[in-house]
Amino acid sequence: MSEAGPVLLATALLKDYPMNGETVHALRGVSLRVHRGDYVAIAGPSGSGKSTLLQLIGGIDTPSSGSVEILGTRLESLKDRELTRLRLTRLGFIFQRFHLLPVLTARENVELPMAEAGLGGAERRARARELLAYVGLGGRADHRATQLSGGEMQRVAIARALANRPAVLLADEPTGELDAATGQEILDLFRRLNADGTTLVVVTHDQRLAAEAGRVIHMLDGRILGD
Amino acid sequence: MIPVSLPRWLGASGLFCLLATSPAAAQVAEVAIERALARELELSVGDTVRLGTAPDSMDRRAVVAAVYEPRPDPAEIAKRERHLRMHLPDLAALLGVPDQVDRLGVGLHPGVSADSAAAALNRTAFGFRAYPSSAIAAESSQTFLVVSRFHRAIAVITIVASAVFLLCIMLLKVEERRMDAAVMRFVGVRRRTIFGALLLEAALVAAVGSAAGTGLAFLAGAATNAYYRRFFDTALTFSQITPQIVLFSVLLSLALGLAAGGLASWRLVRTRPMVLWGRG
Amino acid sequence: MNGLGWGVKSLARHPLRTALSLAGIAVAAAMLLDMVMLSGGIEKSFSEMLLTRGYQVRMTPKGTLPFDSEATISGASRLVIALRSEPGVEAAGAVLGTSLYGRASDSLVTLFGYGIEPQAQALYQLTAGRDLARDDTSGILLSEPAAGLLRAGVGDTVTLVGRLDPQIAEAAIGRKLLVRGQVRWLYDYRGQPSVGTLLPVMQRLARQSSEDRASVLMVKVRDDALVAVVAERLRQRFPQLEVNSVADLVVHFKQRLVYFRQLSYILGSMSLIVAVLLVATLLTITVNERLGEIATLRAIGVSRATIVRQVLAEGAALTFAGATLGILLGLGTARYLDAILTSFPGLPAAFSFFVPRADTLTFAALVLLITGSLAGLYPAWLAARAPVAATLRAEAT
Ligand SMILES: Nc1ncnc2c1ncn2[C@@H]1O[C@H](COP(=O)(O)OP(=O)(O)OP(=O)(O)O)[C@@H](O)[C@H]1O
Ligand SMILES: [Mg+2]
Hints:
The complex is a heterotrimer. Chain A is α/β, with parallel strands linked by helices. Chain A is 35% helix and 27% strand. In chain A, the strands form two sheets. In chain A, strands 6-7-8-3-9-10 form a six-stranded mixed beta sheet, with helices on both faces. In chain A, strand 7 (168-172), helix 6 and strand 8 form a beta-alpha-beta unit. Chain A is globular, with a radius of gyration of 17 Å. The two termini of chain A are 26 Å apart. By secondary structure, chain B is an alpha+beta fold. Helix content of chain B is 59%, strand content 8%. Chain B has ten helices and four strands; from the N terminus they run αβαβββαααααααα. In chain B, strands 2-3-1-4 form a four-stranded mixed beta sheet. In chain B, a hairpin with an 8-residue loop joins strand 2 (48-51) and strand 3. Chain C has two domains: 3-49 and 256-396, no CATH class; 63-239, no CATH class. Chain C is built from 13 helices and twelve strands. A six-stranded mixed barrel of chain C has the order 2-3-10-5-9-6. A two-stranded antiparallel ribbon of chain C has the order 7-8. In chain C, strand 7 (164-165) and strand 8 form a beta hairpin. In chain C, helix 10 (304-341) packs antiparallel against helix 12. Chains in contact: A-C, B-C. The interface between B and C is large, with 42 and 52 residues. The site of adenosine-5'-triphosphate has 12 residues of chain A, from strand 1, strand 2 and helix 1.
């Protein structure tokens, strides 16, 4: 793993979806380089391939062709188990609809990736509290996910994404389900995270977010229009 | 020599039918043996056998005069006993107890009550007891009463188990339709319509299930009969599916299915669509 | 656990559904337990009953089982002496069983009589008074029902009447005896009015003394491990007799009650199938409902193995709770079913069909837990195989 090289490197990504005999070209050759400490926003009209790109660079889906490297590791060369491990330890995901586990408490949701990574009980509880305090939810640790508001859920999701100290945080429309004020709180949190050294790649329709990001990538029809 | 030991009461089972025929005083005793015994000892009509009350006193000769198929008797199937029938004097001679029997059969004139006749005999007689045939039949069917009570208890447990199973499956089946119901509600389909559709589906599932279950029951019954008939070498019927049983089972499962389906559907249509959708 | 109990905790999300499944599993588990108890209980109860006094071998007339017929063995005393001199034999005794009558005020009651040798008996346990001495030809032992019928207690005198002759209309042989003790006859059915005297007394009452007849000879072998060997030797030495060790008798008996054993296998397997189907259906449906959650977990790096473990744990928890309820339910129903079956006419009162034993309980619970957990395999596979990207996208619709 080269410390100097890019955290994330995507080269000539193509993604086709077969659809009723036809082929949907979701990505038609996308290359992207993200460095440590970057705050990248990906913008573009609906259907332009933003989510697809995020899934490919997050190792959730595989490209039809092209390659993705995270900290110098090529994802295509990994077995499913190794890829899962990489997502667990190197990447953090934030979804539009939070996707917390409703049966667990806020703290348990944050603890879950640490437990999966094999962290001891006391250690992960302490870190979960720390992270929840960081996102401003110190007092709600023992509430069930279902008892939280949308903004609170998204903050728990952010704490969860940070749990294993990922190299990159990937977020797909993290403010899409939130009202303007709550969305702003999340943006503030992102800014603080980036200031504290976290690398962020955020897909968004939100003009404010695009304005805050250091870099904005515009997409159209599966291609990058401008960086 | 294959010993066929003759417990005393065994002779009794043959007595009544042979009393009716006039016993021929043959030189050599005649015996009728049951088919299973004939097969096991490889005997056929005309063969001579030696009989005795103990292996060391097999000194009576008898000729196999007939091979008979015993009336299927559920009380006998699990026993490994083999029966043969002989004329009363021959048996008495064999046992060394001349003019002694275990039972006497008494035929009454029409219109005479068996109970009062037995009571009258018991008042005057000494050394034996008289019983009406019905009392003896009741006594000997006691075993089967116990078995059938056992079967009924097992059946109740099975019915409870299958009822719970059915309720559970129906509930799950309806809840599977959660999302569809939510979508239908979103696009403005009336609750009553959704409820009707869900109920219809439950009814269909219950009906198809009952039909399949009935078919399966007949198959299982046939298999049970075939197996036990072979196993016990008998013509008895072990599993009998009567129309009443079919009716009861089908009605019960339809009723339970509809009730469970109805209940689950009712719960579903009363829930707010947003909650159904999982965002409540 | 890695999933922090995500699987098991999910069971609480649909309480009605979970409760119904639990009830179903509990009833199935109860049935399974009962059937396991039935399949092994008959055998166990029978052999325990036969071994109550430690006599491991029974000898009867060729081709018969003990007290199965009225066939008897002649020359009993001689045989017993021969048996006692056999190497490995600790004790041997003869028993004659016969029906006879007792005089209660002015009427006769039907009794069952045992002729025994008190110094070597495997038939009764004393409950009151004292045992017969080996030369006590004027003493008698009564079972509780016999004492009731004869209205006699320890210290009273009773009159027994042997074989009756209808022609003379008078008791052929009558005998006054003094009640020494009250006993529990091990092989009596409930309410059986049985009496016991020394063997020669009973032989005379039954008109069996001229040939010194007995129904059964009972043999106690010094060492349990030698029973089969001793039985085989006795078989060779006394070819005119049927020699059965308790193990042999259990085999005969099992054959007779084969119906119950087969029934127990069939119903047991069906209960198991029902339990498995319930667990599998419930888990399949809840897994399908939670595909979004599962995809999320996979996306944030939770391994397939963790997810499989969670689903299996969910099935195991369900089965465990169901089985626990089922064991309680099963013990209750077993008592009820046992009460029905033990009312078989002529069945020894000491006999049970459903015998709760630690090992059968454990066996039933283990089988259920293992199969219940295996029932989670299909849903677990469904969960593990869910495509992450497509499911996440579908969830967003
Ligand atoms: N599984 C799939 N099967 C077929 N087509 C797909 C699939 N996933 C995505 N697509 C298509 O790929 C294209 C890109 O989709 P994607 O979700 O990446 O767009 P997006 O930029 O994220 O849009 P939005 O802003 O609405 O979220 C779309 O045309 C979409 O229809
Ligand atoms: Mg998108």
